[in-house]
Specification:
Radius of gyration: 16 Å
Structural class: alpha/beta
Order of helices and strands: HHEHEHEEHEHEE
Helix content: 25-40%
Oligomer: single chain
Number of strands: 7
Distance between the termini: 43 Å
Length: 195
């Protein structure tokens, strides 16, 4: 019965997203639902279990699945795709998800406003050149992260992706405590970069 419910929720969510894609014209990869992304659910659980939950930001938020499900005083979702952001705003309104600031953001050029308890960068950084990503992680760690904050990223070891990042290279030179949240499909690993 539980498996049948899971299939129904996945397909119901998938049909909803296909319909939203028809309206908002966002890219096809956004039709994957939260139920299909175990790594995203684990990030949400981790973020909601933290004691410091004042400011949260996700860069590359897509339709806002993670930002919509974390419980923080202030939530921000950034993406370079205005069509995806319009759909994220719509989904948040329909779900009664509370106030989330969804804004256009160009990585690595757009600045982060202020300091955050959590900064999430997942499911897109495999398109970013390693030295650019390393420099941005260091800047976020030093300038945009609160004292007990964490940056959450993923690395993927899949030859179909443009870059297969090495966590030791990405965090080299910063005084961080790096640990793994989990292992997932396509040899994806979610990493916690803590102060």
């Amino acid at each position: 019965m539980q498996r049948l419910f899971w299939k129904f929720s996945v397909w119901g969510g998938k049909l909803q997203r296909i319909f939203l894609r028809y309206i908002f014209k966002f890219d096809n990869w956004h039709i994957f639902t939260l139920a299909e992304k175990k790594y995203a659910k684990d990030i949400i659980i981790y973020c909601n279990a933290r004691s410091e939950r004042n400011r949260f930001v996700e860069i590359g938020c897509g339709l806002g699945d993670i930002a919509r499900h974390v419980h923080y005083g202030e939530r921000q979702g950034y993406d370079m795709d205005e069509k995806a952001l319009k759909a994220a705003r719509f989904l948040n309104t329909m779900a009664g998800g509370g106030k989330i600031r969804f804004s256009v953001f160009t990585f690595p050029d757009s600045p982060l406003p202020g300091k955050f308890d959590v900064i999430v960068l997942v499911n897109w950084i495999h398109h970013i050149e390693p030295s650019v990503l390393k420099s941005s992680i260091a800047a976020y760690f030093n300038d945009a992260l609160n004292e007990a904050g964490v940056i959450i990223i993923d690395t993927v070891q899949d030859p179909e992706y443009k870059f297969n990042h090495d966590i030791l290279f990405l965090t080299g030179g910063i005084n961080a405590n790096v640990s793994k949240l989990g292992d997932y499909e396509r040899l994806r690993q979610i990493w916690l970069i803590k102060k």
